[in-house]
Amino acid sequence: FYQSGDLFKSKKRNLKKFYEVLNSTDFKNYLFMLTGVKAFGGINCSGFVYYDTNYLLPHDDRLETRKLAYIIYLSKGFTKKDGGTLDFFKNNKIVKSIIPRYNSLVLFKVEVGKTIHQVSEVKSNKQRMTIAGWFNDK
């Protein structure tokens, strides 16, 4: 898959503004109200594109400062048969799969060894595009 640099460094005005909204105190307060997760430090924010046969193996996003992960889906028309699902595991079994739905936001708490997840293989010529990253506590 392909990953952009952090959008904080983008020279594109609309991407910079989007980053500023995500990193704003108001938005972080809203997320805290929704999730109960205290993540008022800086954010990481990058663009990702997965093409046919691309995937991401199971992992837990572990880094000391990461508290809340987010994914914003930007591709239209994905179905389960296209692959590219966000899959969550428990005891080495998939317990939840999320199909990438255009203009939707997925949030999940980052817990070492608990929030094991993957991006399943993309099985079509569609591009799975997202903006994703983490809200940190420092």
Annotation keywords:
5-stranded antiparallel β-sheet, alpha+beta, 138 residues, 9 strands, 4-stranded antiparallel β-sheet, 2 helices
Low-confidence sequence ranges: none
Which class of secondary structure composition applies to the elements? alpha+beta
How large, in whole angstroms, is the Cα Rg? 15 Å
Morphology call:
globular
Record field, number of beta strands:
9
Biggest beta sheet attributes: 5 strands, antiparallel
Tell me what portion of residues adopts beta-strand conformation.
35-45%
Helix content: 10-25%
Beginning-to-end CA distance, first to last residue: 28 Å
Number of helices: 2
Series of secondary-structure elements, N-terminal to C-terminal: EHHEEEEEEEE
Characterization of this structure:
- Helices cover 15% and strands 36% of the residues.
- The protein has helices at residues 13-22, 25-35; strands spanning 2-3, 43-50, 56-59, 66-73, 86-90, 93-98, 105-109, 117-119, 128-136.
- The longest helix is centred in the first third of the chain and has 11 residues, at 25-35.
- The protein is globular.
- The mean pLDDT is 96.
- With 138 residues, the protein is of the alpha+beta class.
- A hairpin with a 2-residue loop joins β5 (86-90) and β6.
- The strands form 2 sheets. It has a 5-stranded antiparallel β-sheet, with no helix packed on it. A 4-stranded antiparallel β-sheet has the order 3-8-5-6, with no helix packed on it.
- It is built from 2 helices and 9 strands, in the order βααββββββββ.
